[in-house]
Every structure is written in C-alpha cells, then in structure tokens.
Write a structure and sequence with these properties.
The chain has about 525 residues and is of the alpha/beta class. It contains 17 helices and 18 strands. The protein folds into two domains: about 20-120 and about 195-450, Glycosidases (TIM Barrel, Alpha-Beta Barrel), CATH 3.20.20.80; about 120-190, Oligo-1,6-glucosidase, domain 2 (Alpha-Beta Complex). The radius of gyration is 24 Å and the shape is globular. It is about 25% helix and about 15% strand. Helix 11 runs parallel beside helix 15. Bound molecules: 1-deoxynojirimycin. 1-deoxynojirimycin (NOJ) binds near residues 77, 117, 217, 218 and 336. 1-deoxynojirimycin binds near residues 117, 217 and 337.
Length: about 525
C-alpha cells in the first residue's frame, strides 16, 4: 500500500482562478440512437424518439448528450460506416428532426456532442465508389491504395481490428485498399490535403448547426506510415503499433481539429483513442498548454479494471500522477463497445461503480441504460446483427446495445410498436423506467440523487482530489474546495470496516448505497459492499 506521503504527492489541485469550460462541469450520457426510443414504428430508435425523452434526461440530471452516429449509412457497422457526412439517415429522421432535437436540448440546458467518424467512410460513400473505379479519377488518391507484392499478395503485414489482413483487393485498380476495421470501411488518406479539407468542411457543417462538440472516432488512426512499411512485430496490437497508427503527424491534425472547434467558441473535441493505450499514452493527447490537442482524450483505464480496490486505487493513482496540470480528467465504465457495467460487476455492485464514477474528479460519461442496471442480453444466433460477431465469435457488441425498456408490461417494453432490431432484455419489467421512477430504492433514483448531489456540491464537481490511505479492499479519496471537504469511501471487500479503523476522520454521511437517510446508518455505509460520501 502506498504511504500517506506518497498519497500526498498525487493530490491534484483545481485552480480556483481557472476559466472552466462547460464540459468540465458536465455529466455526459451516451445514447446509441438505434436502441433508445422508436417513434416511427420500424423497430429502430430515432431522433424523434430522443426528442420525446428529453424530459427524462433532464430529470435524471445529465447535462450533456453524446449521440452515436445517425448519418446516412448502409449500417454495415451500424453507422460507423458513413456514406454522407452532412445529413441524417432516414431511419433516424431528417436534418429538421436534428435541429428540433438540439434546440430542445439547448433550451433544457443540455449540451449536444455528436459522433464524427473521419478515419474511414462506408464502402458505399460516393468518394469511395469513385475512388475504386481506376487510378485516374478525381478521388483516386482519397483512400489508401497500394500495389500487390510481386507475388500478388497484400502490401504489408497490417491487420484489421477483427484480425486478418487490413487489405482488400480491387480488380479494377489491380490494387489493395486499406481498412483498419471492416472491409466495408475503407480508410481515408489523410495525407491528401483534399481529404483534410473535405472532412474539416463536414466538421464545420455540424458546428454551424450548433453542436457543442464532436466525439471523434479512432482519432489515433488518422495517419499511417508514409511508406506503408511492415509492423516490426507481426503480432502487434494497436497499442504497440509503430507504423499502422500512432504516427507523430497525426498530432498536428488533432491540434488543427481543436483549433477549428475553438473558432466556434467553447466547443470541444473528445477523442476516441485506442482503448488499450497506457495511461501515459492516453494523457499525452491533452497536448501542451500552448499546443492543445483534445479537450477530452477518452480515458478508458477504469473500463479495463475489475471492481476491485487494489486495481482501482493503482489506476487512479497512476492517472493523477501522469495527468498534466492544464488537463481536466474524464472517467467512464463503459460504452457501446464493451459489456455493460451491471453484467461485468453484477447489478448489486452497479451502485458502487456509479458512486465512484460520479464522485471522482473528472467529467463522468454514462452509457444509456446503466442508470437502470440494464444487463447484456444473450442472443440466439439468428438475432445477431454485429458483423464483428460473425468474423470473431465473442467480439460482437449486440448484447450491450439492446433497446432501453421504458414501460413494464408494454409491448417491447414500450421501446417500439414492432419487433425491435435487437431483443429487449428478459428482465425488462424490473429494469423499466416506469418501474424505477419514483421508487426510492431503485437504481435510477440512486443515480438521480447522486447526480443532483454532485452538481450541487462544488467540492465534488470541481474540487481537488487526494487519494487516501485506506484499509485493504477499500477505495477512499477526499474532494476539497475552498474549505468544503467530502470523503468518499467505498468498501469493495467482504468484511465491514469500523470508522475507528480509518486513518482519517469522517463526520456525517451525506449519501450512501445503504438507502435514503444515510445519517441514520453510518455504520451500515461501511459494511461490505457499501459506500458513501461523508463530510469531513
Ligand atoms: C470505434 C467505435 O466505437 C466502434 O463502435 C466502431 O466499430 C469503430 N470505431 C469503427 O468505427
């Protein structure tokens, strides 16, 4: 265990004089639009469905949305294969629906961040349709094309995300094109200034439409080795890649994206960097004070941890140690690519995970339905949609993308009037919004109250953070602002702890996993599997 002295070293100060940006005080909620709420009766969620539920989001207390892709797409990767950057796919609605949604969100004080996918397009994007025809068309150099080796084989040893070669042959050009993901998602050639200009134009389109930020997909893939040389380690993983991704020139593009966002005022760039990156690699994407890169380089370190004190303490300590002073942290437990929190940790422990996420120093990102304890849904083979599952069994992400249950007992739990694209979970009655709303013991109420407390308590929202020396299996930290001190204690072990055994003092309990009126049962708050926020 680290000593009290070394704990002191990782104390992070929040400068009181700092001009804070909106995103630093935000609580993000990621919506996967296909699965949120279907209003046009096709079994797939839509923008109108989100609009209908803005009041729900407002009452939960979140202050910013991140919408996964809703752009025109043949849906070979469910929207991460874009065939038109500046429009809405009819399955989700129209641009007017988008305008209505953003207006309503803004008038409810909810910011709007949308996904943006610049590394690759759909194979059906008009740019690629042209590009693949021959070597002389105007889009010939918009993607990454390379000649076969003399024996006809692929140009190098790069692999795509679902394993196998990252190259696919096109007879018309007698060349291969690169796809870091599915062959349906050809990588754009970011060394071509025309590509850069076209993508920046699309970014402007959305900023001019009022979005508060872009979540930029796979930002660290944008530039590849100029000579397309082999990876020295043929078994490389993306985090160890030295040729396929992580090229230094990519940093200039990121800085340009950041500068472009700032032209529109306080708009932000949230970068999706590879989820396997080390903490040091992750925090390097904050850039330097005079050369900012991303406002939010997605911090996936918690997402990789079990809900165990030793792992979480070590991760938090390393993160805070390496975080540059000008940077504001962010944290998440999950998203549309990984199994759900309630499945990984169990529904009972979902409260502990939420307590940590919503009291740490840093912007929290929630995934839709986690506030209800939604779990992964087991699918039969004929229900599978995600191509990743077909290519690599076990990699599919359908189980964690199923429809949100709104109404217990209603057809398809009120998500849609017809059979949805993915099944609603069998436990939907217990999980449904209307079962949990107004029930003081529900997980939803726990989230709502915790969010309200975070937003109303400056020390939790923006205070300093100091990790505290604590008994084994306990995560404890102090949040502190201008004399206001809160101590968060989460007992992840199997034995109760007594207040007297703590090497720091606590006073009244402000909030706990042990039920309402925490002040009445402080000792229960320190029981195995419980946690709370104390004044100090
Ligand atoms: C990352 C996204 O989160 C994932 O869902 C998608 O499949 C890949 N990027 C490819 O765009």
């Amino acid at each position: 265990m680290a000593t009290a002295q070394s704990m002191m070293e990782v104390q992070k100060k929040t400068r009181a004089d700092k001009q804070r940006s909106w995103f630093e005080d935000a609580i993000f909620y990621q919506i996967y639009p296909r699965s949120f709420n279907d209003t046009n009766g096709d079994g797939v969620g839509d923008l109108g469905g989100i609009l209908e539920k803005v009041n729900y989001l407002k009452s939960l207390g979140i202050t910013a949305l991140w919408l996964s892709p809703f752009f025109p797409s043949p849906m070979e990767d469910f929207g991460y294969d874009v065939s038109g950057y500046c429009d809405v796919d009819p399955i989700f609605g129209t641009l007017e629906d988008f305008d209505r949604l953003i207006r309503t969100c803004h008038s409810s004080d909810i910011k709007m961040v949308i996904d943006f996918v610049p590394n690759h397009t759909s194979q059906h994007h008009p740019w690629f349709v042209e590009s693949r025809k021959n070597k002389t068309n105007p889009y010939a150099d918009w993607y990454i094309w390379a000649d076969p080796k003399p024996d006809g084989s692929v140009p190098n040893n790069w692999t795509c995300v679902t394993t196998g070669s990252a190259w696919t042959y096109v007879k018309a050009r007698h060349q291969y094109y690169l796809h870091s993901f599915l062959s349906a998602q050809p990588d754009l050639n970011w060394r071509n200034p025309e590509v850069r200009e076209a993508i920046f134009k699309a970014m402007r389109f959305w900023f001019e439409r009022g979005v508060d930020g872009l979540r930029v997909d796979m930002i660290d893939f944008l530039i590849k080795d100029e000579f397309l040389r082999d990876e020295p380690d043929p078994d490389y993983r993306f985090k160890t890649s030295v040729r396929h991704m992580n090229q230094p020139q990519m940093r200039d593009i990121v800085a340009d994206m950041h500068a472009l966002a700032r032209e529109y005022g306080d708009r932000v760039i949230i970068g999706e960097i590879n989820s396997e990156l080390s903490v040091a690699q992750t925090v390097s994407y904050y850039g330097k004070p005079g050369n900012r890169q991303m406002d939010v380089p997605f911090n996936f370190v918690l997402m990789r941890q079990p809900l165990e004190a030793a792992a979480i303490n070590a991760t938090l300590r390393e993160f805070e140690e390496l975080l540059p002073d000008h940077a504001w942290p962010n944290h998440t437990w999950g998203n549309h690519d990984v199994p759900r929190v309630a499945t990984r940790f169990g529904v009972e422990k979902a409260r502990l995970a939420a307590l940590i996420l919503l009291t740490l120093r840093g912007t929290p990102f929630l995934y839709y339905g986690d506030e209800l304890g939604m779990e992964d849904v087991k699918l039969t083979r004929d229900q599978i949609q995600d191509p990743w599952e077909f290519r690599q069994p076990g990699r599919g992400r359908d189980p964690n993308r199923t429809p949100l249950p709104w109404t217990a007992g209603a057809r398809n739990a009120g998500f849609s009037s017809v059979d949805p694209w993915l099944p609603v979970g069998a436990d939907n009655e217990a999980r449904a919004v209307d079962t949990q709303l107004g029930n003081s013991a529900s997980l939803h109420t726990f989230y709502r109250d915790l969010i309200a407390l975070r937003q109303a308590t400056p020390a939790l929202l923006k205070g300093d953070q100091k990790l505290l020396e604590a008994p084994k299996d306990v995560v404890a930290y102090e949040r502190n602002l201008e004399g206001e001190r809160c101590i968060v204690i989460v007992n992840l072990g199997t034995t109760p702890i007594s207040p007297g055994s703590l090497p720091f003092g606590i006073k009244g309990c402000m909030f706990s996993t042990a039920g309402p009126e925490p002040a009445k049962h402080v000792s229960r708050v320190l029981d195995a599997g419980h946690g709370g926020i104390f004044s100090a």
